[in-house]
Amino acid sequence: MLAAAATSLALVLPVLPASAQSLDIPSGTYKNDPTHSSIVWKVTHLGFSTYTGMFAREGISATVELDAEDVSKSKLTVTLAGDQVRTLHPGDKDFDAEIASPMFMNTVEFPEVTFTSTSIEVTGDNTAEITGDLTIAGQTHPLTLHTTLNQAGEHPMAGMPAFGISATGTLLRSEYGNEGLLGPVSDEVSLEIQAEFLPAQ
């Protein structure tokens, strides 16, 4: 029912911000805070509704090599536990396992979903287009994340520099070999990503 992730990852994911061309926090390596990271996917179901699911927060690992002086030179890498899908299906059926099965994502055989940025284009005071390679089930295709910087500065609780982003993207699950119920369930998968980043420890 989805092929993604991700997140997307972005695999994905992750998820790199831009405030104009620079950020008022130190350059360096930043990691996502799993408690405040999420990747939600959406597909249309028979034209009647939009079906949503997500991935386990603890299965999202994103790293930003931040160049605070020139955000466009930064790098983003995301690794997602694609077999940790969460649908919150109300019945006895293990629908999470079905989504991870060869019928859909095939993350049973290929559990790791990855996204690696190839370019970051600053598009506004707090927006950027992050393009990268998304790999799902052994298939790699480009994905662009439309990213908004929510805030960058000193984190009041963590006592260290931080930044938070929101991002969206779309992919075609058929490109990744995900053709289960294709037609009744849309080929296009929408991704919604939220993440807070703190300095890597």
TrEMBL record:
Domain Lipid/polyisoprenoid-binding YceI-like: 29-198
Keywords: Signal
Gene3D superfamilies xrefs: Lipid/polyisoprenoid-binding, YceI-like (2.40.128.110)
Signal peptide stretch: 1-20
Tree of life domain: Bacteria
PANTHER family, per the entry: PROTEIN YCEI (PTHR34406)
Designated name of the protein: Polyisoprenoid-binding protein
Native source organism of the sequence: Acuticoccus sediminis
